[in-house]
């Protein structure tokens, strides 16, 4: 079932809406809405990665800063979004097979991904580790050998922690015990409960975890690292449309909409100067 688009109301990171009010779409027929709003594009989304993309309390409406940014860009193209739920590691395959026109799920742009699909860069985020307040297990991201670490499967953080564990073994230390989850909130919960010692995620998502669990529950450990662009995923044959999307992102950057959205979510630190199709990335 397709997910309804989010309301136009925006929220600061400090007031992210686990109890956000649902604003219903207009009362016209579906055909009238399509005619008024232009072409509809189907977007695969793993809507369990707040604050980038997640479900409102109705279980259908997609909220998040990535949602707002993409919908603002699509509006410049006279298009509207039809969000469809999917597992994170299935979205790129879904775009490649034609099931989705686009994919948007806080995808870090990598050379490997750009071998499969086009990616339009529009935001930047690095990796941030977090643990229980006080870091009781004394987790060091640069020396996590023998620790229990929770991570979302299929992400760049999954690759990161696997590489760190392999390095531990090569150095004669104990491997990292890696517990993988289909979404980040589940991984976070195991850190809160003490089942795992720490987790790592994109900076906005780690900040959200600290915000939502409340004061004195979790804390950052170490600094953010490996900042890289987020990208909207599009089929390799859709280069012309991907270029148009990059232009639309640049339009909202120029007219102030982009900055407004990021500031109201409290994540303007991740702003980029311009959107680009298949940008160069250092890996």
TrEMBL record:
Keyword Iron applies: no
Signal recorded as keyword: yes
Name by which UniProt lists this protein: ABC transporter substrate-binding protein
A Pfam family recorded for this sequence: SBP_bac_3
Signal sequence range: 1-25
Keywords from the named record: Signal
Domain Solute-binding protein family 3/N-terminal positions: 40-268
